Amino acid sequence: MKALKCCILIPTYNNDKTLEKVITEVSEYSEDVLVVNDGSTDSTIHTLARFDNIRVVTYSENKGKGFALRTGFIAALKNGFEYVITIDSDGQHFADDIPVFVEKLETEKNTIIIGARNMNQESVPGKSNFGNNFSNFWFKINTGIAVPDTQSGYRLYPVKLLEGINFITRKYEFEVEVIVRAAWKGIGVIAVPVKVYYPPTEERISHFRPVPDFSRVSVLNTFLVLTAFLYIKPRDFFRGLKKKTSGSSSANIFSIQRSLIQ
After folding, report:
1. HSE toward the beta carbon, residue 185, CA cutoff 13 A
2. Per-residue pLDDT at 203
3. Which of 152, 155, 161, 252 has an alpha carbon 20 to 30 Å from 204's alpha carbon atom?
4. Is the domain covering 6-210 a CATH 3.90.550.10 domain?
5. What is the DSSP string of 19-41?
6. Is the pLDDT of residue 252 over 60?
């Protein structure tokens, strides 16, 4: 990972019960771990203080997962990293899947790699499965790319390539926006299979608020669809037409030159 200039990024908000375990486990795979404390009000700050081998960015006001990720991207770039693997701090992901991302990165440099979960297992909440299918559908409409899990937070980002893209979201919906805008820029979006653990309902900690968060995702998708059909798709059509015309002209010039030589 060091040779690939890749670090681990953990955005966290009030997950002190699982955060220490996540940091400990990912540290077995990388010396470069960055945690963004998104205004936690529990004992997260004390948990982080027990680690002297990680980088920490912390701020007092909770601003949302998307803001935490974007903050982490900037911090990673400032520290010389070109790729980050993001993993949630709630303990649902398994650190031993990190090599899956690294192996794929060795052959897919200019790509966002999403860790696709098995959403058909019995422990997956129904609302999560519905939300994921909803998001997958609109991602394909916006980009033409089919991905099995567009809501997984376990991902590898080529942060160097994301520089210069203007994002407008800062909460959960950012994870949809970033892959759509990346695809529009020509960055690949692919998936690799990863494991997932959903604890029993009474033990589950989630900061996703179904009504407001799902509403924001819906508004974002509406905006992205309009942008896709009014700008991106026409842009790509004319670019393809120009490229085809340019290629045809070059072929004609070559044919004329060859005829003159003969």
Report:
1. 20
2. 54
3. 155
4. yes
5. HHHHHHHHTTT-S-EEEEEES--
6. no
